[in-house]
Amino acid sequence: MDEDTQTAIEETLFLNGIPGMGESLQAEAAEKLEDCLTEDQLEW
Fold first, then answer.
1. What percent of the chain has pLDDT over 70?
2. Full-prediction pTM beyond 0.85?
């Protein structure tokens, strides 16, 4: 297994360990791009 694959697996396991994170990511991925804010609309 190469280093990039190992890193991706570790990141996935980390994120899945955070309660509710998996569901949140799935909901965000299903959101239409045109419904998202643009970078200049964000309040940093």
1. 100
2. no
